Amino acid sequence: MKVYSIHNVSKSINGRTILDIDHLELEAGRIYGLLGPNGAGKTTLLNILGFLDQPTSGRLNFFGKAVRFHETDLLLLRKEVVVLDQYPVLFTTSVYNNLEFGLKIRKVERAERERVIDEVLDLVDMASFKHEPAHNLSGGETQRIALARALALSPMVFLCDEPTASVDIENQAAIVALLKQINENKKISIVFTTHDRLLAAGLAHHTLVLNEGHLVSTSYENTFPCRIEPEKDKQVRCSITESAWIFLSATRFKSPIGKARVFIDPEKIELHTGETTTGAANCLQGKILQLMEESGRIRVVVTVGFLLTVILTRGKYNFLRPGIGDTVVVSIPQDAVTLSS
Questions:
Q1: With bands split at pLDDT 50, 70 and 90, how would you rate the model's confidence at 275?
Q2: Model confidence pLDDT, tens digit, residues 88-124
Q3: Residue 140's pLDDT is what?
Q4: Which partner from 59, 76, 106, 246 sits 20 to 30 angstroms from 291, CA to CA?
């Protein structure tokens, strides 16, 4: 069952197109991570999926039914979808009253309200905060109460805008674990935006990438700002960080000296197990941080001074048998690299 189907959806503001998606289908009961740089259209897409914004053109289906962007229809649809902001706002009253408000609006009986509130607070491990003033909570506690408030309404979909961006490491782990639990136990579909590729790889069943309003290949995540500097022997050095760089042929790559952007094709990167390799150019040593199966292939995230994604075939993975924490070497051939200004 498709929770969302998008067909030729675009959104324009003041004549500028900020979102343009030809086709996208999201399966019910799955978790989707939405990656992309600032201004890519992530929040705009989230607001359209949450029925808070109307596309300029195109068609959106929700569980197989066409969405009519009329207020009477939208009021009903908004009961099935909850949008969780990066900085959730709680009323300056008790945690209990914050959770009770939405249930009262929906005319849930008092005894049932009490039961639901106790259940969701227990689920997010915040039962002891039931009667605490909500405005005294930390950022991580506020996020967990916002999750509980959303859960109390029994939605079919959670749309989360940067759910871990404003909390500390401990609460980030707690929120990730909660989202997984909510998805597995409550069968709630989740779409979340993030800049954190490791979070997306570890939490999402599927990763989507937006750039300039368009869906692009997930290999886009291997695009980095860099600095191009001349070297000897008709080479240039492409510095991605102060401690990590690759050498490129100056005749092959005509990029001007100075700031540029480099794309490294994850399917052309060679992965070698162990600490050394012989005869390969542009070798960077690092450790494996994430392994994830995606459409029959294996995505490997390696830290080499920056986070680099390598795509392995199932056969190559079975031959190498890399594991999380293993020391590996990646070699980057010239034909894996594209430069742009």
A1: low
A2: 889 999 999 999 999 999 999 999 999 999 999 999 9
A3: 87
A4: 246
CA atoms of 57 and 72, how far apart (whole Å): 20
Give the integer Cα–Cα distance in Å for 249 and 244: 17
Looking at domain 219-340, its CATH class is: mainly beta
pLDDT given for residue 66 in this prediction: 95
Lowest mean pLDDT among 207-216, 243-252, 272-281: 272-281
Rounded to 5°, angle at Cα 35 from 29 and 38? 140
Kindly report, as residue ranges, where domains of CATH 3.40.50.300 are found in the chain. 2-216
- The two three-digit tokens of residue 341, written as one number: 């200004």
Helix, coil or strand: residue 72? helix
* Residue 114, both tokens: 């009490």
235 Cβ contact list (under 8 Å, min separation 6)? 247, 248, 249, 250
- Cα first-last separation, the chain: 43
Q: Rounded to the nearest 10 degrees, what angle do helices 95-105 and 110-123 cross at?
A: 130
Structure token digits, residue 3: 């929770």
277 pLDDT band, cuts 50/70/90, is low
- The fold adopted by the segment(s) 2-216 is Rossmann fold (3.40.50)
Helices 110-123, 169-186: axis angle to 10 degrees equals 130
Per DSSP, which regions of 255-319 are E strands?
A: 258-264, 270-273, 283-294, 297-303, 307-312
